[in-house]
Amino acid sequence: MERTIEAAAPVAAARRADPESLADAVLRRRHQIYNAAYRITGDRERASEATRQALASALRGIESLEADALDVSLMRALTEACRHLLGGGSSRRSRSFPWSPPQGNGRGGTPGGEARGEDEQSERQEQSDRIQAGIGTLPTEERICLILSDVQGLDYAEIARATNTSRRTVRRRLARARAGLRDYLRAQDEPTCSTTTPA
Known about the structure:
Mean pLDDT: 79
CATH architecture of the largest domain: Orthogonal Bundle
Structural class: mainly alpha
Number of strands: 0
Number of domains: 2
Helix content: 55-70%
CATH class of the largest domain: Mainly Alpha
Strand content: under 5%
Number of helices: 9
Low-confidence stretches: 4-8, 11-16, 89-95, 105-113, 194-199
Oligomer: single chain
Protein backbone atom coordinates (compact mmCIF):
# COMPACT_ATOMS: atom_id res chain seq x y z
CA MET A 1 0.00 0.00 0.00
CA GLU A 2 1.46 3.30 -1.05
CA ARG A 3 -0.57 6.18 0.28
CA THR A 4 1.28 9.48 0.15
CA ILE A 5 0.59 11.58 3.24
CA GLU A 6 1.91 15.12 3.06
CA ALA A 7 3.63 17.04 5.81
CA ALA A 8 1.47 17.67 8.86
CA ALA A 9 1.79 21.46 8.81
CA PRO A 10 0.27 22.06 5.34
CA VAL A 11 -2.56 19.62 6.05
CA ALA A 12 -3.28 21.15 9.44
CA ALA A 13 -3.40 24.56 7.82
CA ALA A 14 -5.65 23.23 5.07
CA ARG A 15 -8.12 21.91 7.61
CA ARG A 16 -8.65 25.48 8.77
CA ALA A 17 -10.14 25.98 5.29
CA ASP A 18 -7.92 28.94 4.45
CA PRO A 19 -8.08 29.03 0.61
CA GLU A 20 -4.39 29.87 0.19
CA SER A 21 -3.23 27.07 2.50
CA LEU A 22 -5.71 24.69 0.95
CA ALA A 23 -4.42 25.48 -2.54
CA ASP A 24 -0.87 24.87 -1.34
CA ALA A 25 -1.89 21.49 0.08
CA VAL A 26 -3.53 20.61 -3.25
CA LEU A 27 -0.39 21.46 -5.23
CA ARG A 28 1.80 19.47 -2.85
CA ARG A 29 -0.14 16.39 -3.94
CA ARG A 30 0.44 16.86 -7.66
CA HIS A 31 2.91 13.96 -7.97
CA GLN A 32 0.63 11.70 -5.93
CA ILE A 33 -2.19 12.54 -8.34
CA TYR A 34 0.03 11.92 -11.38
CA ASN A 35 1.11 8.53 -10.03
CA ALA A 36 -2.51 7.45 -9.64
CA ALA A 37 -3.38 8.86 -13.07
CA TYR A 38 -0.55 6.95 -14.73
CA ARG A 39 -1.55 3.71 -13.02
CA ILE A 40 -5.14 4.17 -14.19
CA THR A 41 -4.45 5.29 -17.76
CA GLY A 42 -1.15 3.49 -18.41
CA ASP A 43 -0.10 6.41 -20.59
CA ARG A 44 2.10 9.39 -19.70
CA GLU A 45 0.28 11.87 -21.94
CA ARG A 46 -3.16 10.94 -20.68
CA ALA A 47 -1.89 10.82 -17.09
CA SER A 48 -0.45 14.32 -17.47
CA GLU A 49 -3.69 15.66 -18.89
CA ALA A 50 -5.79 13.94 -16.21
CA THR A 51 -3.53 15.46 -13.54
CA ARG A 52 -3.89 18.94 -15.04
CA GLN A 53 -7.66 18.59 -15.20
CA ALA A 54 -7.89 17.31 -11.61
CA LEU A 55 -5.69 20.10 -10.25
CA ALA A 56 -7.52 22.76 -12.25
CA SER A 57 -10.90 21.44 -11.06
CA ALA A 58 -9.76 21.39 -7.44
CA LEU A 59 -8.36 24.91 -7.59
CA ARG A 60 -11.44 26.30 -9.35
CA GLY A 61 -13.62 24.91 -6.58
CA ILE A 62 -11.20 25.68 -3.76
CA GLU A 63 -13.89 27.34 -1.64
CA SER A 64 -16.06 24.21 -1.64
CA LEU A 65 -13.25 21.65 -1.49
CA GLU A 66 -13.53 19.21 1.41
CA ALA A 67 -10.67 20.42 3.59
CA ASP A 68 -10.78 17.43 5.94
CA ALA A 69 -10.70 14.92 3.07
CA LEU A 70 -8.31 16.32 0.50
CA ASP A 71 -7.21 12.94 -0.83
CA VAL A 72 -10.80 11.87 -1.42
CA SER A 73 -11.71 15.19 -3.07
CA LEU A 74 -8.68 15.10 -5.36
CA MET A 75 -9.18 11.46 -6.27
CA ARG A 76 -12.80 12.26 -7.13
CA ALA A 77 -11.63 14.97 -9.52
CA LEU A 78 -9.01 12.63 -10.95
CA THR A 79 -11.53 9.81 -11.38
CA GLU A 80 -13.79 12.08 -13.42
CA ALA A 81 -10.87 13.19 -15.59
CA CYS A 82 -9.70 9.62 -16.20
CA ARG A 83 -13.20 8.43 -17.05
CA HIS A 84 -13.49 11.22 -19.59
CA LEU A 85 -10.14 10.50 -21.22
CA LEU A 86 -10.50 6.71 -21.23
CA GLY A 87 -14.05 7.02 -22.48
CA GLY A 88 -12.95 8.73 -25.65
CA GLY A 89 -12.84 12.32 -24.46
CA SER A 90 -10.33 14.77 -25.88
CA SER A 91 -6.75 14.15 -24.76
CA ARG A 92 -5.50 17.52 -26.01
CA ARG A 93 -3.29 19.30 -23.53
CA SER A 94 -5.32 21.55 -21.28
CA ARG A 95 -4.27 25.17 -21.10
CA SER A 96 -6.06 25.66 -17.82
CA PHE A 97 -3.16 24.47 -15.68
CA PRO A 98 0.55 24.71 -16.66
CA TRP A 99 1.94 21.53 -15.13
CA SER A 100 4.43 18.98 -16.45
CA PRO A 101 5.02 15.42 -15.16
CA PRO A 102 8.25 14.35 -13.46
CA GLN A 103 11.00 13.51 -15.94
CA GLY A 104 12.93 10.26 -16.20
CA ASN A 105 11.85 6.65 -15.94
CA GLY A 106 13.24 5.91 -12.51
CA ARG A 107 15.84 3.49 -13.80
CA GLY A 108 18.88 5.68 -13.40
CA GLY A 109 21.68 3.99 -11.48
CA THR A 110 24.57 5.32 -9.46
CA PRO A 111 27.83 5.57 -11.44
CA GLY A 112 30.11 2.72 -10.43
CA GLY A 113 27.28 0.79 -8.75
CA GLU A 114 27.46 -2.96 -8.46
CA ALA A 115 26.01 -5.03 -11.28
CA ARG A 116 23.91 -6.95 -8.77
CA GLY A 117 22.18 -3.77 -7.69
CA GLU A 118 21.45 -2.92 -11.31
CA ASP A 119 20.10 -6.41 -11.92
CA GLU A 120 17.80 -6.14 -8.90
CA GLN A 121 16.56 -2.75 -10.06
CA SER A 122 15.95 -4.15 -13.53
CA GLU A 123 13.98 -7.07 -12.08
CA ARG A 124 11.87 -4.73 -9.96
CA GLN A 125 11.16 -2.57 -13.00
CA GLU A 126 10.22 -5.64 -15.04
CA GLN A 127 7.83 -6.80 -12.32
CA SER A 128 6.34 -3.31 -12.09
CA ASP A 129 5.84 -3.26 -15.87
CA ARG A 130 4.11 -6.66 -15.74
CA ILE A 131 1.76 -5.47 -13.02
CA GLN A 132 0.98 -2.30 -14.94
CA ALA A 133 0.26 -4.33 -18.07
CA GLY A 134 -2.11 -6.49 -16.04
CA ILE A 135 -3.85 -3.44 -14.61
CA GLY A 136 -4.33 -2.21 -18.17
CA THR A 137 -6.40 -5.30 -19.02
CA LEU A 138 -9.01 -4.51 -16.36
CA PRO A 139 -12.26 -2.63 -17.06
CA THR A 140 -11.94 1.06 -16.27
CA GLU A 141 -14.12 1.11 -13.14
CA GLU A 142 -12.39 -1.93 -11.64
CA ARG A 143 -9.01 -0.41 -12.46
CA ILE A 144 -9.91 2.85 -10.73
CA CYS A 145 -11.06 1.08 -7.56
CA LEU A 146 -7.92 -1.06 -7.49
CA ILE A 147 -5.60 1.96 -7.76
CA LEU A 148 -7.50 4.02 -5.20
CA SER A 149 -7.35 1.11 -2.77
CA ASP A 150 -4.06 -0.67 -3.28
CA VAL A 151 -1.91 2.25 -4.44
CA GLN A 152 -3.50 5.31 -2.85
CA GLY A 153 -4.67 3.51 0.28
CA LEU A 154 -8.26 4.76 0.42
CA ASP A 155 -10.77 2.65 2.35
CA TYR A 156 -14.11 1.42 0.98
CA ALA A 157 -16.05 4.45 2.18
CA GLU A 158 -13.51 6.89 0.73
CA ILE A 159 -13.43 5.08 -2.62
CA ALA A 160 -17.22 5.10 -2.71
CA ARG A 161 -17.18 8.88 -2.26
CA ALA A 162 -14.40 9.36 -4.81
CA THR A 163 -16.18 7.25 -7.44
CA ASN A 164 -19.73 8.31 -6.54
CA THR A 165 -20.90 4.77 -5.90
CA SER A 166 -21.74 2.47 -2.98
CA ARG A 167 -19.37 0.54 -0.73
CA ARG A 168 -20.97 -2.68 -1.92
CA THR A 169 -20.12 -1.79 -5.51
CA VAL A 170 -16.58 -0.89 -4.47
CA ARG A 171 -16.10 -4.25 -2.75
CA ARG A 172 -17.41 -6.09 -5.80
CA ARG A 173 -15.20 -4.17 -8.23
CA LEU A 174 -12.15 -4.62 -6.04
CA ALA A 175 -12.70 -8.36 -5.78
CA ARG A 176 -13.02 -8.65 -9.55
CA ALA A 177 -10.00 -6.42 -10.17
CA ARG A 178 -7.74 -8.36 -7.82
CA ALA A 179 -8.87 -11.68 -9.25
CA GLY A 180 -8.35 -10.42 -12.80
CA LEU A 181 -4.87 -9.11 -12.03
CA ARG A 182 -3.95 -12.33 -10.21
CA ASP A 183 -5.11 -14.43 -13.16
CA TYR A 184 -3.16 -12.26 -15.59
CA LEU A 185 0.09 -12.54 -13.63
CA ARG A 186 -0.41 -16.27 -13.15
CA ALA A 187 -0.89 -16.73 -16.90
CA GLN A 188 2.28 -14.74 -17.56
CA ASP A 189 4.24 -17.07 -15.28
CA GLU A 190 2.99 -20.25 -16.94
CA PRO A 191 5.40 -21.77 -19.50
CA THR A 192 4.25 -21.72 -23.10
CA CYS A 193 3.16 -25.17 -24.16
CA SER A 194 4.32 -26.46 -27.53
CA THR A 195 1.54 -27.36 -29.93
CA THR A 196 3.83 -29.21 -32.34
CA THR A 197 2.60 -32.74 -33.05
CA PRO A 198 5.35 -35.39 -32.85
CA ALA A 199 6.14 -37.03 -36.19
